[in-house]
Each structure stands twice: as C-alpha cells, then as structure tokens.
C-alpha cells in the first residue's frame, strides 16, 4: 500500500478502499465482508494514527478483530514462526 501511495501517487484513502471493499468485490465476497456495515463479518484492524491521511499508520496495528472477537496476536506470531 505504501508503494502505491509513494511511488504511484494513489491517495491513502483510495488505497485503503482498494485493499478492502474493492478486493472483496473482486473476490465476490462483498456480500459478507470488505466494509463496515451492519450484517457483515466484523473483521477489522484497529491502528494507531490515521492511515487515510498517512498510509504508513496502517503498520501501527493495535488490535486484530476477527468475526467480532479480538485475536491474540501472540498466537498468530507463533503460527508464523512454526
């Protein structure tokens, strides 16, 4: 995402839209995910900062929420290392 913003000049907000709802539409899963709407899966990354203004803030992940539940990030890290 950062390369798109820095090298190509795509706005941070447009980049976030492409990474979320556009991809859900392409994969034909936009009826269940890709946007923050009532009735859709609650899959979110909560970050510090404002990636819509500074795309690098998307690296500052505070919480991962999958299907409405906070994910233990340490367990994810262990899975990657195995």
Proportion of helical residues: 25-40%
Number of helices: 3
What's the arrangement of strands in the largest beta sheet? Answer: 1-2-3
Alpha-carbon Rg, integer: 14 Å
Helix- and strand-based class?
Answer: alpha+beta
Biggest sheet character: 3 strands, antiparallel
- List SSEs in N-to-C order: HHEEEH
Task: List unreliable stretches of 5+ residues.
Answer: none
Q: Based on Cα principal axes, name the global outline.
A: globular
Q: Name the average pLDDT.
A: 91
Protein traits:
82 residues; alpha+beta; 3-stranded antiparallel beta sheet; 3 helices; 3 strands; 38% helix; globular
Fold topology:
Blueprint: H1 2-8, H2 12-26, E1 44-47, E2 61-66, E3 69-70, H3 73-81
Structure, explained:
- The protein has 82 residues and is α+β, with helices and mostly antiparallel strands.
- It is built from 3 helices and 3 strands; from the N terminus they run H-H-E-E-E-H.
- The protein is globular and about 35 Å long.
- The two termini are 27 Å apart.
- The mean pLDDT is 91.
């Amino acid at each position: 995402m950062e390369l798109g913003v820095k090298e190509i000049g795509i706005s941070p907000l447009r980049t976030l839209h492409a990474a979320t709802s556009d991809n859900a539409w392409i994969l034909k899963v936009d009826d269940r995910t890709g946007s923050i709407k009532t009735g859709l899966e609650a899959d979110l990354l909560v970050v510090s900062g404002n990636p819509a203004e500074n795309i690098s803030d998307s690296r500052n992940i505070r919480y991962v929420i999958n299907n409405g539940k906070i994910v233990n990030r340490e367990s994810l890290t262990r899975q990657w290392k195995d």
